Amino acid sequence: MKRLVIILTALAMLAPFSSCKRGQVFREYHKFDNNQWKRVDEDIRFTVDIEDINDEYDIAIPIRHASFYPHQYLEIGVNIYSPSGQESYAVKKIYLKDRDGKWKGDGMGDIWDYDFNIYTEYEFNEEGKWIFEIQNLTGNNFYLPGIMEIGLDVSRTKK
Q1: What pLDDT digit, counting tens, does each position of 66-110 carry?
Q2: pTM of this structure
Q3: How many whole angstroms separate alpha carbon 149 and alpha carbon 62?
Q4: How far is CA 101 from CA 32, 70, 73, in A?
Q5: Which domains does the chain have, with CATH numbers?
Q6: Cα Rg of the chain, angstroms
Q7: Are 64 and 74 in contact, with CB atoms under 8 Å apart?
């Protein structure tokens, strides 16, 4: 009985950490084979259904990488396609290490998780399915080692 109480208490303490972020509209990940992201022919696409254009949204790129990732930053291209086909493009440089060479984000062993905000208070001008396409622009090698997962997180801006 005592063991059951301990297990239930532990589960109750972990529950808040496993629930969705408040106001979250979308969160999905793409996992890379062999922890390598190809520079060519491996653009990542996410489709997000936006139902309310009266709200503002925060858009983040969650990244999971290994300690053997060879660069200080990750450079990506972000294409956003509206439901009517309008396109916007931006290049984002995501620093995974600080100036002292320490990894940013949360780490456990050799694995690091870091959420990078690409837009805050973003206003969608159309309801419907928006497509986010993320491209690897880092380095000149065909493979980028150490990148395990790239995601997209869209949440309502907290007011």
Answers
A1: 999 999 999 999 999 999 999 999 999 999 999 999 999 999 999
A2: 0.82
A3: 8
A4: 25, 12, 11
A5: 23-156 (2.60.120)
A6: 18
A7: no
